[in-house]
Amino acid sequence: MRHEGSILQALDLPVNLNDRRAPLWLGWVGLIVIEATLFAALITSFFYLRASSPEWPLGGIQRPDLLLPTAGTVLLLASSIPAYWADHRGRKGDLRSLLIGLIAGLIIIAVFLGLKIYEYSHTGYSWSTNAYGSVVFFIMGFHLSHVIALVLKTIVVLAAAARGHFNQRRTVGIQTNGMYWHFVVIIWLPLYFTLYLSHYIF
Amino acid sequence: MNDPSYEERLQKVWQIPRGLASITAVNHRVIGVRYIVTAFIFFILAGVLALMMVLQLSGDNNNLMTHETYNQFFTMHGTTMMFLFAVPVVEGIAIYLVPLMLGSRDLVFPRLNTFGYFVFLLGGIVVWGSLFLGSAPDAGWFNYVPLAGPDYSPGINIDIYTTAISFMEIAALVAAVELVITIFKVRAPGMSLSRMPLFVWAVLVMSFMIIFAFPPLVLTSIFLAADRMIGSHFFNVAMGGNPLLWQHLFWWFGHPEVYIIAVPAFGMVSTIIPTFSRRPIVGYLIVAVSMVIIGVLSFGLWVHHMFSADASILGMSLFAAASMAIALPSGAQVFAWIGTIWDSERVEWRTPMLWATGSIVLFTIGGLTGPMLAAIPWNWQVHDTHFVTAHFHYVLVGGAVFPIIGGLYYWFPKITGRMMNEKLGKWSFWLSFTGFNIAFFTLHYTGLLGMPRRLHTYLADQGFDLPMQIMLAGALILAAGLAVTLWNVIASLRRGAAAGDNPWNAPTLEWSTSSPPPAYNFLYIPVVDSSNPLWDAGSHDDESTRGYQTGTDHRETLGTTALDAVPEQRLAVARPSIWPLALAASVGTVFMGSLIDLVFVPIGAVMSFIALVGWNWPGKQRRKGL
After folding, report:
1. What is the count of structural domains for chain B?
2. Which of A143, B50, B266, B473 counts the most CB atoms within 10 A of its CB?
3. Whole-complex ipTM
4. Contacts of A4 in chain B (CB under 8 A)
């Protein structure tokens, strides 16, 4: 590759590759690792408090019903499908499918949000009831804030897409949006296990 | 050809904004210098607090200050040294040096970097503002509950701690992510991981540690803020909470923190010693692997801060074993340094070398008391005494501050283009080294006698007067030594001898460009084929290869593959922008506003959203550029 006494040209290399080698893509991985660590610390806190309590939930609170949360979990998982499809088609420059997929995903997420808000306004306890309430509301609140961030972020991506910002050569923004979407969905599974299933399993 | 030359075009596109517009500057060297200067200002402030505390302790029943003031002073001393000096200064040095050492034009996310600096600055101003208003945090730098909880600390003091700390850690986290990606994506062609400078290895390890260590700190600070502000019960025993949760989450962060500070300092020692020993480091691979092992092991030590809290003996024994085990990779590095000096044919005892070698001595002494403290019965005996204070000052001042000052002498010529005064530098070193040992070796003694740390006074017949006066004498000598360096910096800025590109005849890439480097760092992206490129260059027949020419339509640098550093793309790098400042102010509104009224939290969140969209919205120029 070396040339005697010469200057090598980088100009024939592509500008900003459009895949996992893009720094932007790696940057989102970094953010996701940080947030996953945050959720790991939250889950640790939940089980630490549980281990040091004589009863769990505390103060006569009933263990949560599984029906609504499980339905919500299925919905959230389902939202990844149109998001994946939008990402897949959008990468090939199919703007229409991109818009349809993301909007469909957003609608499913909106139903999930509605379910969660309904569920947590009918718990009969709050973060200030006792330590159980505190940690449950914090886990829920942290995740909900991620869901809301995802919704806002997707709306921005939609707006940029509608203005024709993305094309076949430049889709990292779409890919990272998809990646973050799947993260918000997948991280919910350990949280679902912690908040709901763990009461029934051990 | 009437076109402007390649060099002129590079200069134009990488131009650093001047005057008022410099607030939009994103070039890594500008931000790096801002980080370093700001961090050193906090270092001086925290040092003054330390001197006043020693003065207070220099006689029995002294009443120079009340115990309330003393509490604020030792809390601010620790908090500032940890969060406002040590972490930001090593990050600042990394931000300045890493692209130069890698042969890159900038970091991959310059705006993120700028955002981090403003967050750090804003948080620091709020914390120090609170001290001048007399309501600074006062529950120690690790801020244990229940003392720091709403019942025992009703004032605003602890709220400042919880909000400012969780806010400022954002700065550390963004810097960590961008340093990792920079190190993986923009190394000079040919610089495979096994040829990377050891300082860059150290920064890589530090950044990974930050990514896994800081989130729990942010989280637990938010827990405590919520307990204090909106009535949650994470740490309230009466409502099922557990104060030990704070200790676990805090030390999950807090122990790695020690190595987050120490590992980059080790990296500086590993850079300085080979340069002045005039040979490559002994055991490059061992040193690099040791740093990685330290990074991993440091996450398995945290309970040794809690031996006197409630834990099972089996569990504690595991943590004790891990705490002793980390002495092994640390020791391996020390032997590599000693071996490098030993095997040198001609050691040049210049000022940076003195600081680096002095650091080995002090760090080894501090390292020896480490396994002592890791032994559980010993730990119970000296817990919370001056002995512990002595131990971690030897580790942190010896292991981190000395190398950082050595690094300052070493890289000052690169940053400013001028040499620092050698004679003053040596005076500064010997005064600091002597003063430090007098001051802190004495603390081992008072600690063994049973003097608890964080007590603002003692009684007349307890026998602490003389040792504490010796401590005062040592502290004054140390302060004088550091003041000489401060004077040296100021004087050398104006009158220092011109440095030239490579005054130390050092082997790494930052010395291949001018001092100070141009805004674009390198005219051509260098190509390397060894870990000491400037030493080995003469031995190749193709030395006349000048490197890669990059585009000049917009800011760009050469992107290479993560492992072997083969060129794969040109990376567009951000231009100057006001959005980082806007976002820092918006996020600051969330955290700092919460001190005034919780209504600022949603307001700040909306502002942050707007700033984020503004930052990322694809502009016309950018679209054309890509």
Report:
1. 2
2. B266
3. 0.94
4. 542, 544-545
